[in-house]
Amino acid sequence: MSLILKQAPHFSAPAVMDGKVEQNFSLEQYLDKNYVVLFFYPKDFSGVCPTEFWAFQERLKDFQDRNAVVIGCSTDSDECHKAWLRTPRKDNGIEGVTFPLVADMSKTIAINYGVLGGEYTYDDEGKTVFEGSPICLRGTFIIDKKGVVMYESKNFYTIARDVEAVLRELDAIQNFQINGELCLANWKKA
What we know:
The chain is an alpha+beta fold. The protein contains five helices and nine strands. It has a single domain (12-162), classed as Glutaredoxin (3-Layer(aba) Sandwich).
């Protein structure tokens, strides 16, 4: 199921921002004035995930210069996010990351965005079971100021995304929406 050209699924969930938990964090607080880069990742304290956080943080000003906010989301708890944010980089932590981390413990955000690594089903006795891995795949969504999903990418747990490529997609979307110009193969912002 693709979300391209559809309204981004709304959510309200705990998120860690500036070392504090905001219980009712929502996507809507950014729309109308910002583009949103919402990325899903499997787990805090994993081997690949911190590399993406460091890469996003290093390019955060580039996103901000494009009127875009970056938001991370996983099925880990807000307490786990806080602990990871307090852990130094040398210990596989993300200390110094300043963008919000959403805690989707109910897994509803991941389900609504189609990035949960499996699905709920029923066994022969009619009991609910989960088939797969109940954590997020790596998913990236660029949402425009009207709340419409303009870009989505999903991939396996072990393959980190290229933040430069995310910036290129954001540039291409804005080039079309702001300037009305098409973006041909290998297009890059001037």
